[in-house]
Design goal:
The complex is a heterodimer of chains A (111) and B (115). In chain A, the strands form two sheets. Chain A has a five-stranded mixed beta sheet, with no helix packed on it. Helix content of chain A is 0%, strand content 47%. Chain A is mainly beta and 111 residues long. The termini of chain A are far apart. Chain A is globular. Chain B is mainly β. In chain B, the strands form two sheets. In chain B, strands 2, 4, 5, 6, 9, 10 and 11 form a seven-stranded mixed beta sheet that branches. A four-stranded antiparallel beta sheet of chain B has the order 1-3-8-7, with no helix packed on it. The chains are: A mainly beta (111), B mainly beta (115). At the A-B interface, loops of A face strand 4, strand 5, strand 9 and strand 10 of B.
């Protein structure tokens, strides 16, 4: 799987949009960008994934650059409950392989 | 999404005892389950891959005789930490693969503390 680079930590005010960047310059053509988050002392939670096009669901939006070398996860209206570690993972489509978690970005949403 | 449960959610045991952790897929059949552990302020690290009906595949540095994995049914995998020591204290997390949607789902984790 391609390696990803994320900032160690970020802050965001409650109610504002949180934009979490991820670099994956060595991504291959058949690899997807996945985002998970882990709230303290809980298992990881799937957020969103995409290949080329931007994606949106009820939790977040995923913006992938045209060259696919980077992406941004957007939480449009961050709440205190969004405080968590966010992991950007690049992987092939099949779920038959374990996920390779890095240290991710620790997002702190403040009142 | 699909639901994966783990039991117990937290356990405290004495050094030298064995602890069994269960991972269940509640509404789907999981041919493959993964076991991870996470030390404080560290990322999840894969311990082993468990396929139903066959022996688990362990990652380098993980002792298969110490961390016994059994995946005897399509909805249950167990991880037994044998002769636990304080350095085995960690957060153990499983994930299960749902082939019908080709996706993995994580359990809530088990906090193990060895005194």
């Amino acid at each position: 799987d391609a390696k990803t680079t994320q900032p160690t930590s970020m802050d965001c005010a409650e109610g504002r949009a949180a934009n979490l960047p991820c670099n994956h310059s060595t991504i291959s053509g058949n690899e997807y960008v996945y985002w998970y988050r882990q709230i303290h002392s809980q298992g990881p939670q799937y957020i969103i994934h995409g290949l080329k096009n931007n994606e949106t669901n009820e939790m977040a939006s995923l913006i992938i650059t045209e060259d696919r070398k980077s992406s941004t996860l957007i939480l449009p209206h961050a709440t205190l409950r969004d405080t968590a570690v966010y992991n950007c993972i690049v992987r092939v489509a099949t779920s038959g392989y374990a996920l390779n978690f890095g240290k991710g970005t620790s997002l702190l949403v403040t009142p | 999404g699909a639901v994966v449960s783990q039991h117990p959610s937290r356990v405290i045991c004495k050094s030298g005892t064995s602890v069994k952790i269960e991972c269940r897929s509640l509404d789907f059949q999981a041919t493959t389950m993964f076991w991870y552990r996470q030390f404080p302020k560290q990322s999840l690290m894969l311990m082993a891959t468990s396929n139903e009906g066959s022996k688990a595949t362990y990652e380098q540095g993980v002792e298969k005789d110490k961390f016994l994995i059994n995946h005897a049914s399509l909805t249950l995998s167990t991880l037994t930490v044998t002769s636990a020591h304080p350095e085995d204290s960690s957060f153990y997390i499983c994930s299960a693969r749902d082939v019908s949607v080709d996706e993995q789902f994580f359990g809530p984790g088990t906090r193990l503390t060895v005194l």
